[in-house]
Design goal:
Elements: E1 10-14, E2 17-21, E3 25-31, E4 37-43, H1 60-83, H2 91-123, H3 128-150, H4 154-174, H5 181-184, H6 195-211, H7 218-227, H8 229-244, H9 250-255, H10 257-266, H11 272-289
Length: 296
């Protein structure tokens, strides 16, 4: 079966776990401290059943919701599995942490580069095209540097290995392989629909989109970077979706090379135990999607 006719399953690495998402259900598998694999699942409702998911350029908002809310919720749940009942992150602490992380991310990757670009435009008397290019280069440098730096943290490196496990399972499924750790291990840690590719695409598109705004006063320049984040997300989602559906094209393969290259910073080769977790999450999600007998 050609890849473009397959459902576009996706996932996310967690702390000692993997989240797998289908059209109607998701499942997450966690390796608990005692070595057992815990699998949880839930039906996707609300925004996932809205008309947005079928409307080009608006359906990217669902992916943005995935990253900001759903992904964070399960990432926190995976951390709770490791810390135990007495150290759970929940309630106001969770929401404050999410809000704080979001504010820091926007400030670091959008506002700081914009402010520096504005400074170059003002002090060096360059036009807005050059200042936006400088802003984009700074944004890209911050993104790559941040990913490289956190990848040096042992716990994050393990999350990146689970990211590799997630990619391998999706790749194995899309190639029709039986999902056993031995089979899945042979597949690539790269995948064209990866969230890392999405982030790089957002950075590149930001240079183009922000340049068309023309010269702006510093306040409006900063506000535009915040206001247009959803627009960038929807454009990036459509680009990633389009490239994933045209992988037979040599031109598309050339276009996605930078995206696949950056994934080597956010993935690691997983262990067999990690693949077992990823397979468990995928099998649970797949069985719910297709109303199959539950896999133990």
């Amino acid at each position: 079966m050609p890849i473009e006719r397959l459902p576009s399953y996706g996932g996310q690495a967690l702390i000692e776990g993997v989240l797998m998402r289908g059209s109607n259900y998701l499942a997450a598998a966690f390796r608990k401290p005692d070595g057992e694999i815990e699998v949880v699942s839930e039906k996707l409702t609300g925004i996932y059943n809205s008309r947005l998911k079928n409307i080009p350029f608006l359906r990217g908002l669902i992916m943005l919701w995935d990253a900001l809310v759903l992904g964070t919720r399960f990432l926190t749940a995976s951390a709770n599995y490791q810390t135990g009942e007495n150290e759970k992150i929940e309630g106001p602490t969770l929401y404050l942490s999410m809000g704080g992380a979001l504010l820091v991310g926007v400030a670091l990757f959008f506002l700081l580069p914009a402010a520096i670009g504005q400074g170059f435009e003002t002090w060096l008397k360059i036009n807005h095209w050059w200042s936006n290019l400088i802003e984009g280069i700074i944004r890209l440098g911050l993104l790559v540097g941040y990913i490289w730096l956190i990848g040096k943290i042992p716990d994050i490196s393990r999350v990146f290995a689970y990211h590799g496990a997630e990619h391998k399972v999706i790749n194995a499924f899309e190639n029709g392989a039986e999902l056993t750790p031995e089979n899945v291990m042979r597949y690539s840690i790269e995948h064209p629909r990866c969230g890392t590719s999405f982030l790089l695409t957002v950075v590149i598109l930001s240079v183009v989109l922000f340049s068309f705004l023309g010269p702006l006063p510093v306040l409006w320049r900063l506000l535009s970077r915040i206001i247009l984040i959803p627009v960038l997300a929807t454009l990036a989602y459509e680009y990633i979706r389009w490239t994933a559906r045209h992988l037979e094209s040599g031109f598309v393969k050339f276009l996605i090379r930078p995206n696949l290259a950056l994934q080597h910073l956010t993935t690691r080769e997983p262990s067999k135990a990690m693949l077992e977790v990823s397979i468990s999450a995928f099998n649970k999600m797949f069985s719910l999607e297709h109303n199959l007998p539950q896999v133990p």
